[in-house]
Amino acid sequence: MTRITQQNSWSCLACCAAMVTGEPLRRVVADVGHDGGQVVENSRYPDGRRGFTLCEIVRYLAGRGFILGVPLDQTVSITDPAILIVQGRKYKHAVLWTGLDVLDPNPTAPDNRQPMDYQILQWWPVVRVI
Asked: In the β-sheet with 66-68, what is the strand arrangement from edge to edge?
């Protein structure tokens, strides 16, 4: 998996999805139908942007043969890839666990981080089904 860095404050989850599939971020944007940059009321992002929802990302991944979560007939270990929702400085942030290290879309984050470097709020295993 190749690290993709976000160019704004609202696309970390979309960057993680692009890293999972190996596609460029523009493919996530095209599939979802927006770039997350629209200003909306009640935004969870610091600059009031729409961002990307987990449902949009789940749909994008499923369309490419990935399930986000644990299928009932398969066990998942911590060496399997996962999208992690972590606590950022002020807001939640998404990073990708490759099974070896963390790929953080934040362009200022150092390479080769580990899950213990973050306060993990959610761990979403990524399972390839095709």
From this structure: 66-68, 120-128, 82-87, 92-97, 102-103
**Residue 87, C-beta contacts closer than 8 angstroms, at least 6 positions apart:** 93, 118, 119, 121
Specify the number of domains making up the chain: 1
Q: Is residue 31 part of a domain?
A: yes
Domain that includes residue 38, residue range = 12-128
d(CA 60, CA 20) in angstroms, rounded, equals 11
Instruction: Please list the pLDDT of the chain residue by residue as tens digits (130 residues).
Output: 999 999 999 999 999 999 999 999 999 999 999 999 999 999 888 789 999 999 999 999 999 999 998 755 556 677 889 999 999 988 899 999 999 999 999 999 998 899 999 999 999 999 998 7
CATH of the domain at 20: 3.90.70
Domain assignment of residue 1, yes or no: no
